[in-house]
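Researcher: We're teaching a course module on how sequence relates to structure. For the next exercise, students receive a sequence and then see the predicted structure as tokens, so they can try to spot secondary structure elements on their own. Here is the exercise chain.
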Amino acid sequence: MVCSFTVPPRLTDASKRMHGGALASLVDLVGSAVFFAGGSPATGVSLQITISYLNAARANEEIEIDARVLGIGATTGCVTVEVRRKATGEVVAHGRHTKYLAVSSKL
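Model: And here is the predicted structure for the students to work with:
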């Protein structure tokens, strides 16, 4: 799944760079969405999120988020999420997200 996002000033710090917490939320949200796009009925809770912050995205800059499923097991799934500057392709952050995939009740 590939999507784009323009960094609003409200998600930046005093230096006009995208706040790390906002970037982590983006990894969480898009990482969860890729499971839905792949047909998963629910995504449950995050078990682990790891993010390497490599460069800064700035206010009003367009970024591209590329999320891919690494694997899905019986109860868990793992995705990789790469955030790049849309104009140059330079990597801003790289994340890995492992989620518990809700299992349907047999009741």
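Model: If you want an answer key for the exercise: Strands lie at 2-6, 46-53, 62-72, 76-85, 91-100. The radius of gyration is 15 Å.
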